[in-house]
Write a structure and sequence with these properties.
two-stranded antiparallel sheet, single chain, 2 domains, about 45% helix, Rossmann fold, seven-stranded parallel sheet
Amino acid sequence: MLPVERRILIKVANMYYMDHMKQSDIAERMGVDRTTIGKYLKKALGNGIVKITVEHDSFDELESALEKRFGLKEAYVVTRSYDLLTVKRNMARAGLNLLKRIVDNGQVIGTAWGTTISELAKYAEQEKLPQINADFVPMDGGPESIDSEYHVNTLCYQLSRAFGGRSHYIYAPAIAKTAEIRQAIVQDVNYEKISGFWERLDIGIVGVGAPVKSSNLIWAGSFGKEAIESLAHTGAVGEICSVFYDINGRAVETPFSDRIIAIELDKLRSLSYSIGMAASREKVPAIMGALRGKLINVLITDEETAKILLNE
């Protein structure tokens, strides 16, 4: 390359990349046509005068490995922390960033309940989000014994308000006291309305629970530790929307299966986006079951959990 030619390439590259000039304006200044400027820029790139780099997230390899291993549409890995609340907040931010990209007019967006989803809803209220014409619905009944800020109807309302959509509420517990009460609830007009939205669901946002003593269902007062311990004989490894499943993501029969008021697991498999947010060693079997059973096609988790899943 002649010295004068290199000088021109550097000059043109600086005007285009550094000064953000249009190619037509550069052409006018240089006394050539726009096509020539395009050729100069291409040559500058080919000769190493211009080097374009794409910033890599520190977890891009982990995310790619998760997507390939489990056939995920997307995976998001956040920084590990000994503070579980910090992890949950990081997952919530990742979940909100995903929603900002995929929500659209005419969609039906479902949400479960839990502390991580609560953090997501809080962040959504703090941001200026694109306003959409969409419906937001609960995906299971609301626990009766928890603070209203964690109730599924509250989270549904917060998300819908942040996105400018319409919120719909379910007037039923996650687990009815008896099978007869559940039967009466599912015949109610409110349940018919909500279950109708479930049939049209586009996006679902769920937590992934584990049948352990720290389970959300115990925390929410749905049932006691003895009920959780009784699940050991059912093969249950995880829970989504109050429905328990085995290591292959198949729903298992439990003493309270006939009392659950929630979307069916099979419906999650058909969603365009079934987003699962969960992290911790104790939840690995539950997450693995959800992945194997295709109950979720997007996973948001932390670095430690991701590595364990890939080594299972």
